Amino acid sequence: MVKFAIFLKAEMDNIDKLVFNEELIFIKYKCTNCGTESETFAGLDPDEEIDIKGSRGVCNFQAKCKCCSRSFNISFLEKFDYIQENNNKFTKFMTFECRGVEIIEYDPRAGFIAYCQKTPYELDLSEGDWCDYDEDTSLSLEIFGVSSKIEKI
Q1: How many domains does the chain have?
Q2: Transmembrane residues, as ranges (predicted)?
Q3: CA-to-CA distance for 36 and 87, rounded, in angstroms?
Q4: Model confidence, pTM
């Protein structure tokens, strides 16, 4: 088993923190047996527990390689808030335990909440940028330049 982390980087204006709200996590992956990469993003649900075949354990994503037919699975371990102090720096955002597979790409989409002075804003980062206006503070809220990288940990 190998652990991977998704590191997030974003430029945030007037946002205190960005939180992932545990909806589907969209990833691309690569089979560690034959090296075949997924062609499309797959959705991993951190709340769904799947029994691992031939084991007493559970995971959050399980599939078979289209090329070599080897089974693999991924377990969601932990999420971290992206806070203002880390603005525009790659910061660990999520961690996973992988068996027979490597996570190679992450696509931030829906499932995020941005906080401006404790006021939550549900947002979608599928276009990479987001903006809004906070009437209570008269501040323009922005998140832009969103990018991610994957590393073994």
Answers
A1: 1
A2: none
A3: 35
A4: 0.93
